[in-house]
Amino acid sequence: MFYSPIVQRGAGPLTVMPRSFGVAVQRPQADRWIVDLGEDLFSRRWWRGLLTLFALTASAALLAPGLEPLPGGRPAPLEPAQLEQWEALAIAPLSGGSNTGLQMLETAAVEPLTSAPQRTSVSLFATLGAGEGIARMLLRSGASAAEAGQTATLMAGAGRRIAPGTSVAIVLGEQLGGGRAVREVSLRAGLDLRLTVRRDGAGLTLVRTAIPVDTAPLRIRGRVGDGLYWSLRSAGASPEVAAAYLQALATAVEVGSEVAADDRFELVLANRRAASGESVAGPLLYAGLERTAGAAVQLLRWPIGGRMAWVDAVNAGQPAQATAGLQWPVQGRITSGFGPRVHPILRFSRMHRGIDFGAGWGAPIVAAADGQVVRAGWAGGYGRQVRIAHGGGLLTSYSHMSRIIVDAGGAVRAGQLIGYVGSSGLSTGPHLHYETIRNGVAVDPLSVRFASVRPVDAGEVQAIKARLKALLGG
Ligand SMILES: [Zn+2]
Q1: How far is the CA of 329 from the centre of ligand 1 (A)?
Q2: Where do the domains of the chain lie, and which CATH numbers do they carry?
Q3: In this structure, is the dihedral angle defined by the CA atoms of residues 299, 300, 301 and 306, taken in order, positive or negative?
Q4: Over the stretch 270-285, which tens digit does the pLDDT of each residue have?
């Protein structure tokens, strides 16, 4: 056993502790020979310690058995041909002149094939690209030019425009010159029709498979609760439909103050549902609100003067008024309402003369209604600003834009793109600051109703009533 000595210095006799046990063992004689060479340099005791060290080292060297090579076999040196093969298979730096990756020549065991094997059929899916016809899509999928052309002609016979992005299932057969024969090409030409070109005994033929489509409108109902927008969303309305509903409602009531938590909303959407399960939701057809205080709102989407507008169906019996309504200028939610607030940059309370819509950088901004652009350019803290005069002393103003695409003096239609959301001027991030100004005074945009486009005549009133009855199921 070997003790690695640890010498403890102290007032008492020196103590050597064997490291392996951690238990102090008293060795009174050891201090004569085992000495801390860092202590009492060149004293008699130090020299004796040094002598001990040399004596121990020398005896260890004398007693050591020495190093001998271990007995074992040696591999035979490689033949030059073998070495070449090994080099080709091994990974070695190319800079060292290695042959790594070289192909080896075939040996006598390799026989050439008389004919290459061929897959008898290929099944694949392709997506119709934008501006690409059926023929070109088949050609790039590996069909022969003649077969691709014939299939495209048959498909065109169905008289449907096939939308880019349509997924096409293709089965190709044996190789002809320059491509494969077509066995089957199948695609969805719309919600209600599947087209298949199939090869039978006579050649390629077109098969039309009609898919029944249910056009019953979709109805969404619910309670307003804490927030109308989120209640609409949780009742199943998409963000677009919820925004369209709020826009419609804003033509009849002040959404900001006149809607209560216990009011109940009702929406009817155009909807097409295929028997195979897919459905496509169409535009909002009806926007209703049953109010706890105040008259119920029933708005019907109705063409007026060649454009779709919201018609008040409740009052359709009396000399009815059609309300064109202000469009929402941007798709986004209101992040700051109209009224006094602490300005986020200037840090003092001031009147917020408009409403802020939170929207991403570059979101499109549209004109809220028909009108004439009276300002398009930089407006101090408002940054890039557009102002539109709508007649009747009403102006709308759009600020902090990143880009303006209309010119002052030009006419704009409701819903026309006028620029993009940005953060120009005094602004903390991309948003749209939207103001409505009536006769020079800023008013709450949610309170503005663009009323009376033109009265609806008696015949139309009947049609509106009938439509409403049909939509709401009588
Ligand atoms: Zn603002």
Answers
A1: 14
A2: 7-52 (no CATH), 122-210 (3.10.450.350), 218-323 (3.10.450.350), 333-447 (2.70.70.10)
A3: negative
A4: 888 888 888 888 888 8
Residues with C-beta atoms within 5 A of ion ligand 1: 356, 433
**Ligand 1 center to 332 CA (angstroms):** 14
Whole-number average pLDDT of the chain: 80
What share of the chain has pLDDT > 90, as a percent?
Answer: 24
SS3 at position 466:
helix
- Is it the case that residue 444 has pLDDT exceeding 60? yes
Distance from residue 150's CA to the centre of ligand 1 (Å) = 61
Ligand 1 centroid vs 345 CA: distance in angstroms? 12
For tokens 């006799």, the residue is: 13
Lowest mean pLDDT among 69-78, 170-179, 446-455: 446-455
Q: Output the CA 244–ligand 1 centroid distance in Å.
A: 22
**DSSP labels for 156-208?**
HTT--PPPTT-EEEEEEEEEETTEEEEEEEEEEEETTEEEEEEEETTEEEEEE
Residue 400 alpha carbon to ligand 1 centre in Å: 9
Whether the predicted model's global pTM rises above the 0.90 cut: no
